[in-house]
Design goal:
404 residues, single chain, mainly alpha, Growth Hormone, Chain: A, globular
Amino acid sequence: MFRSLGRPDILIVTLAAAGIMMVSMGTRQSLGLFIGPIDASTGVGISTISLALAIGQFTWGAFQPVAGAVADRFGPRIVLIGGLLLLALGSAITPFMSSGFGLNVSLGVLSAIGAGAGSFSVLIGAAAQRLPVEARGSASGVINAGGSFGQFVFAPILQKIIQTAGWMAAMWSMAAIALLALPLVGKLTGAVEVKIMHRDDSGVLKTIATAMRNPSYLLLHAGFFTCGFHIAFLTTHLPGEVNLCGLPPSVASWSLAIIGLSNIFGSLYAGSCVSRYRSKYILAAMYGSRVLLIGLYLLLPRNELNFYLFAAGLGFTWLATVPPTAAIVGKLFGIRYLATLFGLALLSHQIGGFLGAYLGGLAVTRFGDYGWMWYADMALAAFATLINLPIREEPVAISLAPGR
């Protein structure tokens, strides 16, 4: 299935990008584990911490197109190095923050910008520029799986550190891990770029203007918005849901780990499907499965086994939406500005992420549970299923002037 990745140079580029993704996404997807310990230590309140993480969700997404544009213009090396340093800095100073404003700065801005600079848009764009066309679909699946593997590894480890040495030590461990990932940047960016004849190089601004007038691209944004809502709500508030069900914190960390493990297989499978099926149908199937899984979860007893089964089911499509989404962007507009255009799609994803994280905190504070959030998540997933179907995947000519 991944025969196209067999060459050593292709494999090195792919695994280096996947390793950076493992660190940037693995740490971010585990932040929900810190809500209870930070609240117990500082007393700032769950809604205040949720706001900081929600700001981080939005900042992470807002920086994606910026990071992508800088990488497209100056190369990904400086973006990735700066991102890992900022991720380390934000994690390292968080234990010294005892107010909502401080958490907004460390987790909502610094860590989020750092993780955004070392995430999907830059990594997939950098790899695409260095890989032959037949390897890009499988490579995007492997890179995406790297983020899921990070969640699988980091969630239980960080939970164990929190329990044994405290949440501050866990934060400092995250900072150290970010610094240890720096050598991978050279492995990725040191590879020679593939000579590609771009079908159009009218400039990034004209490309963006054309994209934002394209109905298929806008529908893709809308579907990705719902994906962000879903993921941010669960990563931020799954530990709280577990606590409300009277289960131990380890159930939350292992559920997040199972989500990550399951998504490794889901991402690899999605990457292989991109070259065989229309990506819009892959996305519609993924979003539709979430409606069914959440509905089933709400009907079943809340015990450990059902949490783990729920996590395994959700994990298969968790971030597996990334390869088909990136594939559609590439089909529509080519790969010259893939990092920028996919970064804009990720901004929509994280606007949904902001709402998922923040509204979850408000819901549990106001109503004492997450009932309404589960219903909202189901409704948005059903919406995303339907709006992906009209997407057209044919190449779009870049307009030279508005309306032309």
